[in-house]
Amino acid sequence: MYKKLLILVLLVISLSAQLKSAERGFAIIVDKDTYTACRAEIENYRSVLEREGLSAVVVAQVWSNPMQVKDVLQRLYLDKGLEGALFLGEIPIPMLRDAQHFTSAFKMDQELFPFKSSSVPSDRYYDDFDLKFNYLGKDSVNSLFHYYSLRGDSPQKISCDIYSGRIKPTKSGEQGYNQIRGYFKKLLKERAKDNYLDVIISYTGDGSFSNSITAWKEEGHTLREQFPNSFKDKNSVKFLLFNMYPYMKDIVSEELRREEMDLMLFHEHGMPYRQYLTGIPLSKGVSEYSESARALFRTALAKESDSAKREQMKTKWMSQYKIDSTWFEGFLDPKQLVKDSLDDAKMGILLEDIPNIKPNARVVLFDACYNADFREESSIAAEYIFSEGKTVVSIGNSVNVLQDKSACDLMGMLGLGFSVGEWMQNVNILESHIIGDPTFRFKSAKTKSIDFKSKDSQYWLSVLKLEKEADLQGLALHKLFALDYPNLDELLLDTYNSSQLYTVRLQCFHLLQFYNNGKFEELIKSSVYDPYEFIRRKSTFAMGRVGKDEYIPHIAKVYLNDYLDERVQFNAAFGFDLMDMDKLENEVKAQLDLNTTFYDKRVVWADFKDRFDSRRRIAQMADDVTNRDKSTKARLASVKMLRNNTYHNKVDDLLIVLKDPKDDVKVRIALAEALGWFNLSHRRGEIVAACKEASQNREIDPKLLDELTKTIARLEVYMR
Length: 720
Known about the structure:
- The termini are far apart.
- This protein folds into five domains: about 1-175, Gingipain r, domain 1 (Rossmann fold, 3-Layer(aba) Sandwich), CATH 3.40.50; about 195-280 and about 350-445, Rossmann fold, CATH 3.40.50.1460; about 285-345, no CATH class; about 445-610, Leucine-rich Repeat Variant (Alpha Horseshoe), CATH 1.25.10; about 625-715.
- It is of the alpha/beta class.
- The model is unreliable at about 1-20 (pLDDT under 50).
- Helix 23 (about 535-545) packs parallel to helix 25.
- The protein has 32 helices and 17 strands.
- The protein has a six-stranded mixed sheet.
- The longest helix is centred in the last third of the chain and has 21 residues, at about 600-620.
């Protein structure tokens, strides 16, 4: 025991000595027991980092809470040039609350659901030193979980100071230590190779991007811009789609096993325990359709243990689908259940499949929900790196994510020799995480010519002008944005209008929306017709979020003409009730009357009216916010709608409620939070002014003041 304590003390005392005055520090944060059990492998890893130019230090101790970890990281960052960290073993997990605007889609009700499920496990707590949180306590069951609430006086934008990765074994005790030992052994073998990133597979699963072919086809164009040296032959880059074969599992598994595989991209739906690759295959006849339906019924009935509820389900289905009881036969037959289970397993990759697959793709990106949820004992992303294959890094999300998210922004940096951590540091959201070694990089001489840490605007302007690689230009724009380069808005607009590169124009689009001078609002009038489907998709969405009636002709045009772009048309319909609905209805009618391509305009109009009237009914539900005759529960339910539906024409009435000290304080607190989602609204300046006015009340509720402060900061992020 004395020797162990002495080792730990010496490690901490020598921390500064090991880092010396290096400009590139790296910290291996490990729990005491893991370090003791895996010391040789960890020290071998540290030595490799030293040889590659990172001054690495191991900090091993019993970690009681995340603040201990963050204090060490912050000290190393300020004193020793820390650029990244690895969290190894049983390292405290920050469970973040009141920060859902940092996520892409997560909006679980924090009042209704338990802390564990309604919090976001996120290492952004460690990566961004400027964020401020209130500590809420430790989980009563899992001692690794520590709950934090984002404070109102915190910055309301993620800006990572360092990058990080996490390695958490999926087994306990000695088995878990063996996983870590095995991981470092294969990692060091891969790091010893001169491996260029030139073999890529992209897989798009059932339900991703609404199964839009126009959305799927664009990745061939963007990956060619990002990895131009990878397109050598038919096997160097492949694009696989869920419906290329009835069950794609075996095909995907074989691709993962390829010895030369470098990068695997999964655009799919997911859970911690499953990748959803395909749905029920398209049937070739009535009998196959019938059997597929019967299987769905059997599966649903088998999951319900209450016999009375099962009978209710049967009765409902027989009435709804005009079928008889024979459609449910066999739902408790063990042989039938096994067959149904095997058929279901063919549609996805499960945790237990991964050890048999032994994936060799060195880096795997899971553009999916929950595949990297490190709250769980095991997850898809973790099993990939602990398999016997050559996968050393997986990138995934700890909660659900937005379908319309560009997960591959700046990813071409990997092909240019930047580390996974350096890439992800620029594009992190609250739920995205590196599982594995964040310093892993592919071979390339390009990084030697790029000063990644430069804080000289003129340097990054020269990179933008002189470098031909798309994602180096994109990186330069992000660096200029972080440095608050004056007149960047003009540069972004000029670059968007002059660049032939889809991925560069996309970064211009992303960054310009943070400016409040009308340039972004003007840009989307043209970008809604961009050749790149994703830019069209996001531009259509942005028109609704900005909410100016001058966009009505564009929304109508997109809706009527872009029906083959499922996600674009979906976003157009989603914005119906964010405009003046009477004007929009008239505009669609006028454009439809002039249209000469539709075979049956009555069908088109009927379809439009169905969607339009549905959105009108949704909009009417939001009127309950200002109706004091409604219960608090009903008003709060309506307030929550405003997070997804930014009704600009209701802002005047909403601000009356917000500023009225006599109104229900629970409603006002919730409303203050909801108004923070009006980040692109042309009325965000009015909202900020009203929040500032309301916050001046000396008798204001502290929770309301905190939420008002937070919303002011959230909206001002988009008011450069």
